[in-house]
Amino acid sequence: MIEIHQIPVLSDNYVYLIRDQRSGSVGVVDPAVAEPVMEAAGRLGWKITHILNTHHHGDHVGGNRKIKAATGCVIVGPRADAGRIPGIDVQVGDGDFYDFGGARATVYDVPGHTRGHIAFWFAESTALFCGDTLFALGCGRMFEGNPDQFWTSLCKLRDLPDETRVFCAHEYTQANARFALSVDGDNAALVERSNRIDAARAENKPTVPSLLGEEKATNPFLRVDDASLAANVGLAGHDPVAVFAEVRARKDNF
Ligand code: ZN
Ligand code: FE
């Protein structure tokens, strides 16, 4: 099992420190910056041994070189994007198992936000680190992929168990909820969740992690094959890829 410590950095990023309880290995998932992460590890008495990167964006790899220089840690990242991951040592891709200390992660290629994006699923710990692919009530912007790829990626994650905790990389949930209501406002579970999110944010509480089961029921980007959502965006009876493209475009302009 892994212990997880969540660190808010920059305006809305989350960096995660993960510790394998058997081996004592400590990983950093997507270090946007170095200092706050190393300080947090120091306070916990955790010695960083690994960095796990989901994709190449600066707010996910910005701390790589400094942390590696200070700790000698091993950097694990996407094979499909190895050239854009600073300091990468170990390349992983779809279906690989990565043994982090004693904890096993399954790796998924989830292109769409970027062409080389990956996700790490720790089945035993019910934890998914999905970077900017899946957010609480949203998904990442489609910078380098197409709707078909992105929908395929989201389906891989949607297939994981409901009890999976979704550790995404940004606190975007409240804005995502407003958009979600615009395309799925008659979804009672979404309305109820949106109210809970407003209450949490009013107290400055994080809304991440969320549970995948709740995302399946309320995240519009995981519901583009739902008949009522398709109808709400004027695409009743259309292919989920077409509905995904429409919902993603609407979010870009919301
Ligand atoms: Zn990104
Ligand atoms: Fe990001």
Would you give an account of this structure?
The protein has 254 residues and is of the alpha/beta class. The protein has one domain (2-252): Ribonuclease Z/Hydroxyacylglutathione hydrolase-like (Metallo-beta-lactamase, Chain A, 4-Layer Sandwich). Helices cover 34% and strands 24% of the residues. Strands 1-2-3-4-5-6 form a 6-stranded mixed beta sheet, with helices on one face. It has a 6-stranded mixed beta sheet with strand order 7-8-9-10-13-14. Helix 5 packs antiparallel against helix 6. The longest helix is centred in the last third of the chain and has 15 residues, at 188-202. The relative contact order is 0.12. Bound molecules: zinc ion (ZN) and fe (iii) ion.
Short characterization:
This protein is of the alpha/beta class and 254 residues long. It is 34% helix and 24% strand.
Show the helix and strand layout.
Layout: E1 2-9, E2 13-20, E3 26-29, H1 35-44, E4 50-52, H2 58-61, H3 64-71, E5 74-78, E6 90-92, E7 97-100, E8 103-109, E9 118-122, E10 127-131, E11 134-135, E12 138-139, H4 147-158, E13 165-168, H5 173-184, H6 188-202, E14 210-211, H7 212-218, H8 227-232, H9 240-252
Parallel strand pairs: 3-4, 4-5, 5-6, 10-13
Antiparallel strand pairs: 1-2, 2-3, 7-8, 8-9, 9-10, 11-12, 13-14
Helix pairs in contact: 5-6
